[in-house]
Amino acid sequence: MLLKLTIKIFKKLLLHSLFWVAVLFFYMFFFAIDDSDLWLSARFSIALMPVTIGTTYIFSYTLIPKYLSKRKYFLFGLYSFYALVISASLIIFSAFYGYLLVFGLQWEGSYPVSKGLTFIYFAVYLVIVLGCGLSLTKSYFKTLNKNEELKNTLLESELQLKIQELQYLKMQIHPHFLFNTLNTIYGLALTKKDSAPDMILKLADLLDYILYETKKNKVPLKREIQHLKDYIELEKLRFGDRLIAEINIAEFSSNIEIPPMLFLPFLENSFKHGKSSEGILKIKMKLEIIENQLVFFLKNSVPKQKEILDQNSGIGLENIQRRLQYIYGKAYDLELSTSKNEYSILLKIPLKF
What we know:
Largest sheet: 5 strands, mixed
Number of domains: 2
GO cellular component, one term: membrane
Mean pLDDT: 79
Organism: Zunongwangia mangrovi
Order of helices and strands: HHHHHEHEEHEEHHEE
CATH architecture of the largest domain: 2-Layer Sandwich
Strand order of the largest sheet: 2-4-5-7-6
CATH topology of the largest domain: Heat Shock Protein 90
Helix content: 55-70%
CATH superfamily of the largest domain: Histidine kinase-like ATPase, C-terminal domain
CATH class of the largest domain: Alpha Beta
Distance between the termini: 42 Å
Protein name: Signal transduction histidine kinase internal region domain-containing protein
GO molecular function, one term: phosphorelay sensor kinase activity
Transmembrane segments: 12-32, 44-64, 76-99, 119-141
Protein backbone atom coordinates (compact mmCIF):
# COMPACT_ATOMS: atom_id res chain seq x y z
CA MET A 1 0.00 0.00 0.00
CA LEU A 2 2.82 2.39 0.94
CA LEU A 3 4.74 1.47 -2.19
CA LYS A 4 1.73 2.20 -4.42
CA LEU A 5 1.24 5.56 -2.70
CA THR A 6 4.93 6.41 -3.16
CA ILE A 7 4.80 5.50 -6.85
CA LYS A 8 1.64 7.57 -7.31
CA ILE A 9 3.23 10.62 -5.66
CA PHE A 10 6.41 10.17 -7.70
CA LYS A 11 4.44 10.02 -10.98
CA LYS A 12 2.50 13.14 -10.04
CA LEU A 13 5.67 15.08 -9.15
CA LEU A 14 7.32 13.92 -12.36
CA LEU A 15 4.42 15.05 -14.54
CA HIS A 16 4.22 18.43 -12.83
CA SER A 17 8.00 18.89 -13.11
CA LEU A 18 7.95 18.06 -16.81
CA PHE A 19 5.10 20.53 -17.36
CA TRP A 20 6.91 23.40 -15.66
CA VAL A 21 10.17 22.63 -17.46
CA ALA A 22 8.19 22.86 -20.71
CA VAL A 23 6.75 26.19 -19.54
CA LEU A 24 10.27 27.48 -18.79
CA PHE A 25 11.41 26.60 -22.31
CA PHE A 26 8.30 28.28 -23.69
CA TYR A 27 9.14 31.48 -21.80
CA MET A 28 12.76 31.34 -22.98
CA PHE A 29 11.88 31.19 -26.66
CA PHE A 30 8.83 33.47 -26.34
CA PHE A 31 10.82 36.30 -24.78
CA ALA A 32 13.66 35.79 -27.26
CA ILE A 33 11.57 36.07 -30.41
CA ASP A 34 13.47 39.22 -31.52
CA ASP A 35 16.85 37.41 -31.59
CA SER A 36 17.62 38.28 -28.01
CA ASP A 37 20.23 36.31 -26.15
CA LEU A 38 18.66 32.97 -25.15
CA TRP A 39 20.62 32.75 -21.92
CA LEU A 40 19.45 36.22 -20.88
CA SER A 41 15.87 35.21 -21.75
CA ALA A 42 16.23 32.09 -19.58
CA ARG A 43 17.33 34.12 -16.57
CA PHE A 44 14.41 36.49 -17.04
CA SER A 45 11.98 33.55 -17.45
CA ILE A 46 13.13 31.99 -14.18
CA ALA A 47 12.05 35.19 -12.38
CA LEU A 48 8.50 34.74 -13.72
CA MET A 49 8.16 31.05 -12.80
CA PRO A 50 7.17 31.47 -9.09
CA VAL A 51 4.20 33.76 -9.79
CA THR A 52 3.11 31.57 -12.72
CA ILE A 53 3.27 28.37 -10.67
CA GLY A 54 1.62 29.93 -7.61
CA THR A 55 -1.27 31.51 -9.51
CA THR A 56 -1.90 28.34 -11.52
CA TYR A 57 -2.07 26.15 -8.41
CA ILE A 58 -4.29 28.62 -6.55
CA PHE A 59 -6.83 28.46 -9.37
CA SER A 60 -6.47 24.72 -10.06
CA TYR A 61 -6.51 23.41 -6.49
CA THR A 62 -8.44 26.05 -4.54
CA LEU A 63 -10.69 28.39 -6.48
CA ILE A 64 -11.95 26.00 -9.18
CA PRO A 65 -12.65 22.89 -7.02
CA LYS A 66 -13.96 24.75 -3.96
CA TYR A 67 -16.08 27.39 -5.66
CA LEU A 68 -16.53 26.94 -9.43
CA SER A 69 -17.14 23.18 -9.30
CA LYS A 70 -19.61 23.65 -6.44
CA ARG A 71 -21.42 26.42 -8.37
CA LYS A 72 -20.49 29.15 -5.93
CA TYR A 73 -20.10 31.59 -8.76
CA PHE A 74 -20.14 34.82 -6.74
CA LEU A 75 -17.36 33.67 -4.41
CA PHE A 76 -15.41 32.26 -7.34
CA GLY A 77 -15.64 35.56 -9.19
CA LEU A 78 -14.73 37.58 -6.09
CA TYR A 79 -11.69 35.48 -5.13
CA SER A 80 -10.62 35.25 -8.78
CA PHE A 81 -10.59 39.04 -8.95
CA TYR A 82 -8.42 39.18 -5.82
CA ALA A 83 -6.09 36.51 -7.24
CA LEU A 84 -5.74 38.32 -10.57
CA VAL A 85 -5.00 41.67 -8.89
CA ILE A 86 -2.39 40.11 -6.63
CA SER A 87 -0.86 38.06 -9.46
CA ALA A 88 -0.73 41.12 -11.73
CA SER A 89 1.16 43.01 -9.03
CA LEU A 90 3.53 40.08 -8.52
CA ILE A 91 4.13 39.86 -12.28
CA ILE A 92 5.25 43.51 -12.26
CA PHE A 93 7.55 42.80 -9.31
CA SER A 94 8.88 39.62 -10.99
CA ALA A 95 9.47 41.44 -14.27
CA PHE A 96 11.35 44.19 -12.42
CA TYR A 97 13.39 41.59 -10.55
CA GLY A 98 14.03 39.82 -13.86
CA TYR A 99 15.41 42.99 -15.36
CA LEU A 100 17.74 43.38 -12.38
CA LEU A 101 18.72 39.72 -12.64
CA VAL A 102 19.57 40.07 -16.31
CA PHE A 103 20.98 43.58 -16.60
CA GLY A 104 21.81 44.64 -13.10
CA LEU A 105 21.14 48.36 -12.73
CA GLN A 106 21.72 49.10 -16.42
CA TRP A 107 18.84 49.42 -18.86
CA GLU A 108 19.04 47.62 -22.18
CA GLY A 109 16.32 49.13 -24.33
CA SER A 110 16.90 46.61 -27.10
CA TYR A 111 15.64 43.72 -24.93
CA PRO A 112 12.28 42.48 -26.35
CA VAL A 113 10.49 42.63 -23.03
CA SER A 114 10.82 46.37 -23.22
CA LYS A 115 7.79 46.25 -25.53
CA GLY A 116 5.70 46.49 -22.38
CA LEU A 117 4.03 44.57 -19.60
CA THR A 118 1.26 43.47 -21.95
CA PHE A 119 3.79 41.19 -23.61
CA ILE A 120 4.63 39.62 -20.23
CA TYR A 121 1.02 39.41 -19.03
CA PHE A 122 0.02 37.61 -22.20
CA ALA A 123 2.68 34.93 -21.75
CA VAL A 124 2.04 34.38 -18.03
CA TYR A 125 -1.75 34.26 -18.20
CA LEU A 126 -1.62 32.04 -21.28
CA VAL A 127 0.27 29.46 -19.21
CA ILE A 128 -2.11 29.90 -16.26
CA VAL A 129 -5.16 29.33 -18.49
CA LEU A 130 -3.51 26.27 -20.04
CA GLY A 131 -2.65 24.84 -16.61
CA CYS A 132 -6.20 25.41 -15.32
CA GLY A 133 -7.61 23.87 -18.50
CA LEU A 134 -5.54 20.72 -18.01
CA SER A 135 -6.63 20.58 -14.37
CA LEU A 136 -10.31 20.95 -15.36
CA THR A 137 -9.95 18.25 -18.01
CA LYS A 138 -8.38 15.87 -15.50
CA SER A 139 -11.09 16.66 -12.94
CA TYR A 140 -13.80 16.10 -15.57
CA PHE A 141 -12.54 12.65 -16.53
CA LYS A 142 -12.01 11.75 -12.87
CA THR A 143 -15.62 12.71 -12.09
CA LEU A 144 -16.78 10.83 -15.18
CA ASN A 145 -14.99 7.67 -14.01
CA LYS A 146 -16.44 8.01 -10.51
CA ASN A 147 -19.95 8.42 -11.92
CA GLU A 148 -19.44 5.37 -14.13
CA GLU A 149 -18.22 3.32 -11.16
CA LEU A 150 -21.19 4.51 -9.09
CA LYS A 151 -23.54 3.64 -11.94
CA ASN A 152 -22.03 0.17 -12.26
CA THR A 153 -22.32 -0.32 -8.48
CA LEU A 154 -25.98 0.69 -8.54
CA LEU A 155 -26.68 -1.59 -11.51
CA GLU A 156 -24.95 -4.48 -9.75
CA SER A 157 -26.98 -3.84 -6.61
CA GLU A 158 -30.22 -3.74 -8.62
CA LEU A 159 -29.23 -6.97 -10.35
CA GLN A 160 -28.60 -8.68 -7.02
CA LEU A 161 -31.96 -7.49 -5.73
CA LYS A 162 -33.67 -8.81 -8.85
CA ILE A 163 -31.90 -12.16 -8.49
CA GLN A 164 -32.99 -12.40 -4.86
CA GLU A 165 -36.58 -11.50 -5.71
CA LEU A 166 -36.56 -13.98 -8.58
CA GLN A 167 -35.43 -16.72 -6.21
CA TYR A 168 -38.18 -15.67 -3.82
CA LEU A 169 -40.76 -15.91 -6.60
CA LYS A 170 -39.53 -19.42 -7.41
CA MET A 171 -39.91 -20.39 -3.77
CA GLN A 172 -43.50 -19.15 -3.87
CA ILE A 173 -44.30 -21.17 -6.99
CA HIS A 174 -42.92 -24.42 -5.62
CA PRO A 175 -45.17 -24.72 -2.52
CA HIS A 176 -48.16 -23.62 -4.59
CA PHE A 177 -47.57 -26.36 -7.14
CA LEU A 178 -46.73 -28.95 -4.49
CA PHE A 179 -49.87 -28.18 -2.47
CA ASN A 180 -52.16 -28.82 -5.44
CA THR A 181 -50.39 -32.04 -6.41
CA LEU A 182 -50.44 -33.44 -2.86
CA ASN A 183 -54.10 -32.58 -2.70
CA THR A 184 -54.62 -34.78 -5.76
CA ILE A 185 -52.70 -37.68 -4.21
CA TYR A 186 -54.71 -37.26 -1.02
CA GLY A 187 -57.90 -37.63 -3.02
CA LEU A 188 -56.60 -40.82 -4.63
CA ALA A 189 -55.49 -42.21 -1.26
CA LEU A 190 -58.96 -41.65 0.19
CA THR A 191 -60.51 -43.70 -2.61
CA LYS A 192 -57.71 -46.30 -2.29
CA LYS A 193 -57.03 -46.28 -6.03
CA ASP A 194 -54.15 -48.39 -7.41
CA SER A 195 -52.86 -45.42 -9.37
CA ALA A 196 -51.67 -43.66 -6.20
CA PRO A 197 -48.17 -45.31 -6.15
CA ASP A 198 -47.53 -44.35 -9.82
CA MET A 199 -48.62 -40.84 -9.05
CA ILE A 200 -46.22 -40.65 -6.09
CA LEU A 201 -43.31 -41.75 -8.32
CA LYS A 202 -44.09 -39.12 -10.92
CA LEU A 203 -44.42 -36.53 -8.19
CA ALA A 204 -41.00 -37.57 -6.87
CA ASP A 205 -39.50 -36.91 -10.31
CA LEU A 206 -41.17 -33.50 -10.42
CA LEU A 207 -39.92 -32.65 -6.93
CA ASP A 208 -36.40 -33.66 -7.96
CA TYR A 209 -36.72 -31.24 -10.87
CA ILE A 210 -38.07 -28.48 -8.64
CA LEU A 211 -35.47 -28.87 -5.90
CA TYR A 212 -32.39 -29.09 -8.09
CA GLU A 213 -33.01 -27.93 -11.64
CA THR A 214 -34.80 -24.69 -10.75
CA LYS A 215 -31.69 -23.42 -8.98
CA LYS A 216 -30.17 -22.99 -12.43
CA ASN A 217 -30.78 -19.99 -14.65
CA LYS A 218 -31.38 -22.21 -17.68
CA VAL A 219 -32.49 -25.78 -18.26
CA PRO A 220 -32.84 -27.76 -21.49
CA LEU A 221 -36.21 -27.22 -23.12
CA LYS A 222 -36.60 -30.96 -23.61
CA ARG A 223 -36.32 -31.50 -19.86
CA GLU A 224 -39.02 -28.91 -19.20
CA ILE A 225 -41.22 -30.60 -21.81
CA GLN A 226 -40.72 -34.00 -20.16
CA HIS A 227 -41.98 -32.61 -16.87
CA LEU A 228 -44.96 -31.05 -18.61
CA LYS A 229 -45.82 -34.50 -19.91
CA ASP A 230 -45.27 -36.05 -16.47
CA TYR A 231 -47.60 -33.51 -14.94
CA ILE A 232 -50.29 -34.27 -17.51
CA GLU A 233 -49.90 -37.99 -16.76
CA LEU A 234 -50.35 -37.21 -13.06
CA GLU A 235 -53.57 -35.38 -13.79
CA LYS A 236 -54.80 -38.17 -16.08
CA LEU A 237 -54.59 -40.50 -13.12
CA ARG A 238 -56.76 -38.11 -11.14
CA PHE A 239 -59.31 -37.21 -13.81
CA GLY A 240 -59.46 -40.50 -15.70
CA ASP A 241 -62.04 -40.36 -18.50
CA ARG A 242 -63.10 -36.87 -17.43
CA LEU A 243 -59.95 -35.42 -19.03
CA ILE A 244 -59.67 -34.73 -22.75
CA ALA A 245 -56.14 -33.55 -23.50
CA GLU A 246 -54.85 -32.53 -26.93
CA ILE A 247 -51.08 -32.13 -26.76
CA ASN A 248 -49.02 -30.96 -29.75
CA ILE A 249 -45.33 -30.50 -29.04
CA ALA A 250 -42.88 -30.02 -31.89
CA GLU A 251 -39.43 -31.57 -32.06
CA PHE A 252 -36.77 -29.29 -30.62
CA SER A 253 -33.02 -29.17 -30.68
CA SER A 254 -31.28 -30.34 -27.52
CA ASN A 255 -29.33 -27.06 -27.48
CA ILE A 256 -32.39 -24.90 -26.72
CA GLU A 257 -32.56 -23.74 -23.09
CA ILE A 258 -35.20 -21.80 -21.17
CA PRO A 259 -35.73 -20.61 -17.58
CA PRO A 260 -36.95 -23.50 -15.39
CA MET A 261 -40.60 -23.83 -14.34
CA LEU A 262 -41.71 -21.43 -17.05
CA PHE A 263 -44.65 -23.36 -18.52
CA LEU A 264 -45.53 -25.71 -15.68
CA PRO A 265 -47.36 -23.11 -13.53
CA PHE A 266 -49.63 -22.26 -16.48
CA LEU A 267 -50.47 -25.92 -16.97
CA GLU A 268 -51.03 -26.44 -13.26
CA ASN A 269 -53.32 -23.42 -13.19
CA SER A 270 -55.40 -24.83 -16.03
CA PHE A 271 -55.99 -28.09 -14.20
CA LYS A 272 -56.79 -26.26 -10.99
CA HIS A 273 -59.49 -24.01 -12.48
CA GLY A 274 -60.46 -25.79 -15.68
CA LYS A 275 -63.62 -27.89 -15.90
CA SER A 276 -66.87 -27.93 -17.80
CA SER A 277 -70.51 -27.98 -16.82
CA GLU A 278 -70.56 -31.72 -17.61
CA GLY A 279 -67.61 -32.36 -15.28
CA ILE A 280 -65.22 -32.91 -18.21
CA LEU A 281 -61.98 -30.94 -18.47
CA LYS A 282 -60.70 -30.11 -21.93
CA ILE A 283 -57.06 -29.12 -22.26
CA LYS A 284 -55.30 -28.11 -25.46
CA MET A 285 -51.58 -27.40 -25.39
CA LYS A 286 -49.22 -26.52 -28.23
CA LEU A 287 -45.50 -25.74 -28.15
CA GLU A 288 -43.58 -24.75 -31.27
CA ILE A 289 -41.09 -22.30 -32.81
CA ILE A 290 -42.45 -19.48 -34.97
CA GLU A 291 -40.19 -16.77 -36.40
CA ASN A 292 -37.35 -17.45 -33.98
CA GLN A 293 -39.71 -17.32 -31.00
CA LEU A 294 -40.81 -20.11 -28.72
CA VAL A 295 -44.61 -20.09 -28.74
CA PHE A 296 -46.58 -21.75 -25.94
CA PHE A 297 -50.34 -21.99 -26.31
CA LEU A 298 -52.66 -23.41 -23.65
CA LYS A 299 -56.46 -23.52 -23.54
CA ASN A 300 -58.79 -25.06 -21.01
CA SER A 301 -62.54 -25.26 -20.57
CA VAL A 302 -64.30 -23.35 -17.79
CA PRO A 303 -67.93 -23.59 -16.65
CA LYS A 304 -68.70 -19.94 -15.90
CA GLN A 305 -67.34 -16.42 -15.70
CA LYS A 306 -66.41 -16.66 -12.03
CA GLU A 307 -63.95 -19.45 -12.76
CA ILE A 308 -62.41 -17.32 -15.49
CA LEU A 309 -61.89 -14.46 -13.07
CA ASP A 310 -60.37 -16.85 -10.54
CA GLN A 311 -58.00 -18.23 -13.14
CA ASN A 312 -56.79 -14.74 -14.02
CA SER A 313 -55.71 -14.29 -10.41
CA GLY A 314 -53.74 -16.51 -8.06
CA ILE A 315 -50.20 -16.71 -6.75
CA GLY A 316 -48.81 -18.91 -9.53
CA LEU A 317 -49.94 -16.78 -12.48
CA GLU A 318 -48.97 -13.51 -10.84
CA ASN A 319 -45.49 -14.76 -9.99
CA ILE A 320 -44.81 -16.21 -13.42
CA GLN A 321 -45.67 -12.83 -14.97
CA ARG A 322 -43.21 -11.09 -12.66
CA ARG A 323 -40.56 -13.70 -13.51
CA LEU A 324 -41.10 -13.07 -17.21
CA GLN A 325 -40.63 -9.33 -16.69
CA TYR A 326 -37.38 -9.85 -14.80
CA ILE A 327 -35.96 -12.33 -17.30
CA TYR A 328 -37.10 -10.92 -20.64
CA GLY A 329 -38.05 -7.32 -19.89
CA LYS A 330 -40.19 -6.22 -22.85
CA ALA A 331 -38.96 -8.99 -25.15
CA TYR A 332 -41.78 -11.40 -24.30
CA ASP A 333 -45.48 -11.35 -25.15
CA LEU A 334 -48.18 -12.83 -22.90
CA GLU A 335 -51.82 -12.80 -23.93
CA LEU A 336 -54.60 -13.98 -21.61
CA SER A 337 -57.96 -14.31 -23.29
CA THR A 338 -61.38 -15.50 -22.14
CA SER A 339 -64.56 -16.51 -23.81
CA LYS A 340 -67.84 -17.89 -22.57
CA ASN A 341 -66.53 -21.40 -21.89
CA GLU A 342 -62.77 -21.20 -22.50
CA TYR A 343 -59.67 -19.66 -21.04
CA SER A 344 -56.45 -19.46 -23.09
CA ILE A 345 -52.86 -18.36 -22.70
CA LEU A 346 -50.47 -17.43 -25.50
CA LEU A 347 -46.85 -16.89 -24.48
CA LYS A 348 -44.08 -15.89 -26.89
CA ILE A 349 -40.48 -15.71 -25.72
CA PRO A 350 -37.19 -15.25 -27.59
CA LEU A 351 -35.08 -18.36 -27.99
CA LYS A 352 -32.08 -16.53 -26.51
CA PHE A 353 -32.15 -14.51 -23.28
